[in-house]
Amino acid sequence: MNKIAVVVGASRGIGRSVVYQLANTPHLTVYALSRNIDKMDREYASFPNISAHYFDLQKGISDQLSDIFSNCQQIDFLINNAGYLVNKPFSELSSEDLHRSYQTNVIGVMQTIQCLLPKLTHGSHVVNISSMGAFQGTVKFAGLAAYSSSKAALVNFTELFAEEFKSSKIKMNCLCLGAVQTEMFAEAFPEFTTAINSDHMAEYICRFVFDAHKWMNGKIIPVSMSTP
Ligand SMILES: NC(=O)c1ccc[n+]([C@@H]2O[C@H](COP(=O)([O-])OP(=O)(O)OC[C@H]3O[C@@H](n4cnc5c(N)ncnc54)[C@H](OP(=O)(O)O)[C@@H]3O)[C@@H](O)[C@H]2O)c1
């Protein structure tokens, strides 16, 4: 039977690489969700198993998802990859910066999962994409108070969801990624480069999405070469 994967944050960077890798998986239909619908339409037009949909985590989530998934009964894999990074000194963070960070990085993810719950109940794997900066005990970077703390909330939510739904068939895990060379990384840290590109990271994410829920639930996995 055909399986269904949903990638939120699918227009560029890691999400785009994930969509391309999923596109080559037999018997898999992929829903690619992001705001930049023109780019996704261009990118994915030649793949009959990918459908691109406008979706904004800052707007009415329930109405958008009801439209997108009106003909979809079940979702096997949900990858919450969208992220918003503001790099600013804490004293300069505006209320808009804080709200945008938390809405995109955690509240919107929670609302998305709430809306999609009825389609996840047959044994689905939800994978939340967080950051090493949100992982306790790792090196922290000045300027990332809004971003990393909102990603830490996503980490904590993963553990809480897994506890609350442990008797259901839904499994949820969270990957805390280290630096990946993407537009987000280049915009936030123009003075740095990193050896890991989005295709490398997507390869690991896809493997994890397909398999990890057979062995783990509510787990927070650091995915990084750096120490500690
Ligand atoms: N790159 C890194 O070094 C790194 C490290 C640790 C963790 N991460 C995490 O990995 C994920 C992917 O990062 P990336 O580097 O690939 O970032 P990116 O290049 O900025 O891509 C982010 C994706 O999220 C989507 N997005 C942003 N705001 C959205 C919104 N309001 N509604 C719906 N979609 C939205 C963007 O699409 P649209 O603009 O079209 O909506 C884009 O497809 C993020 O969660 C990020 O926090 C990245």
Walk me through this protein's architecture:
The protein has 228 residues and is an alpha/beta fold. The chain contains seven helices and seven strands; from the N terminus they run βαβαβαβαβαβααβ. A seven-stranded parallel β-sheet has the order 3-2-1-4-5-6-7, with helices on both faces.
Provide the list of bound ligands, each named once. NADP nicotinamide-adenine-dinucleotide phosphate
Distance between the termini: 43 Å
Q: How would you classify the helix and strand content by structural class?
A: alpha/beta
Largest sheet: 7 strands, parallel
- The tally of strands reads 7
Principal-axis shape equals globular
SSE succession: EHEHEHEHEHEHHE
Strand content: 15-25%
Name the strands of the widest sheet in spatial order: 3-2-1-4-5-6-7
**Given the structure, what is the number of helices?**
7
Q: Fraction of residues in helices? A: 25-40%
